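ok trying again, last paste got cut off:
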Amino acid sequence: MSLTTSTLEPDLVPDDGGGRDPMTSGSLDGAPMWGIRLGSIALGLLGYVAFGSVNWALWAVIALATYMVATLLVSRVVESPRQATDRFAAAVMTSAFVVVLFPLFSVVWTVIDRGSNRFDWEFYTSSMRGVIGEGGGGYHAIVGTLIVTALTAAFAIPFGLFTAIYLVEYADGGRFAKAVTSLVDVMTGIPSIVAGLFAYALFVVLDDVPVLTALSTGVGHRSGLAGAVALTLLMTPVVVRTSEEMLRLVPNELREASYALGVPRWKTILKVVLPTAVSGILTGIVLAIARVIGETAPLLVTVGITADVNWNPFEGRMATLPVFAYNSYKFPTLPPEASIDRAWAAALTLVILVVILFSIARILSSILKPKGLK
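nice, full thing came through this time. structure:
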């Protein structure tokens, strides 16, 4: 049987489920989609103005709902039902992303707005020694936070990294490796106050050990070392998990090529595996530090609070930024506005420290990344 043009024509027309040829229908790419987005924002602002007593959340809800519905309806008219469904799904995903960003921007903006009231030289150069009302600063809390966090990193990073290396490079999937993995999962969900109580009980017990009695003062013990031990329990499982995932992403071909050249396993890990995964490992370490640098509950139990600078983490109370912010907010002095401003300035300082840590991690990742890796 011979094929004619008439028998081929029906099959050449794509079926979009709505009787429209998507090859010749209109398109919302570019300016039309931006018009829909801007129109949705404008309609949300009108709703915000109409209900002036309602906060900005109403504007966001109206704008996002309008954006999703308008995208679906306009795309069905201009393009095709199939394309409309695709654009509606993209609009839902985009709206969900914007909803997640709103609390983040709200928190950051609030911290910057309120913390800027005491973002001055006095706050970063003076302590609360002898200060009852206005004035004073968080210099002693900044010093305590840096010391406790440094001790925590010194404990948690080696433990976590070596554990991850064992699980990826040496473990054969036996019972011990599975038990370690299960314990790491359990530690990830430990409440922070439990870690603080554990560290406190540990240092109380150490007072009864003759060799270690110098590290503890018994019941009521407070020190930066105790706080570092508590935070180590919270930071170690995060380092283990992130480092383990980054090490598993290293291609096995690199290990096999190194073994084929006669390089021992330990040197392969040191020279090939770790440099390849260093970017992700550093990012995971910074995330782990950011996880613990703002903890308050365990430090309340183990470190306490003081109004002066304490450089010795092995003896005496130390001030930290989270506890300083909590104490300033919970027990304000007169006038209370001064204490509240100091609390917000401490929160802003914590945010700045996390930003600095992430910046350092990015710089080190680019410097330490092996040549040829993108």
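cool. The chain has two domains: 22-109, 123-368. Residues 1-13 have pLDDT under 50 and may be disordered.
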